[in-house]
Amino acid sequence: VQLVESGGGLVQPGGSLTLSCLASGMFIDKHGMRWYRQAPGKQRELVADVSLIGVTNYAESVKGRFTTSRDNSKNTAYLQMNSLKPEDTAVYFCYSVNTWGKGTLVTVSS
Fold it and tell me: What pLDDT, in 10s, does the model give residues 18-76?
């Protein structure tokens, strides 16, 4: 199983980014997917998850701003992030089937 994140970058406060997590060696429609983030000097925290049946949950800090989804035909999960804040700056990881991606850096700064 391999998970590869992409889509990170530098964005101004209030901007948007969409992260992708391409899975190989497994089918995302057979498993849940979680998104975590780790800011400098902080512990990794769960940001969002989508269950096997498509039920989503979000951390309070991102609720209403972030949306997770998946495209089974592309075997890819997404994290749409809107109204980004400087405190959203972190490395974002996807996780499924006991496997972590390597992460993608999101920097929110003017």
Answer: 999 999 999 988 999 999 999 999 999 999 999 988 899 999 999 999 999 999 999 99
Which residue pairs, CB below 8 angstroms and at least 24 apart, start in 97-102? 97/1, 97/26, 97/31, 98/1, 99/1, 99/2, 99/3, 100/3, 101/3, 101/4, 101/5, 101/21, 102/4, 102/5
DSSP tag of 72:
G
The residue behind tokens 């850096």 is: 105
What dihedral angle (degrees, nearest 10) is formed by the CA atoms of 5, 10, 12, 17? -20
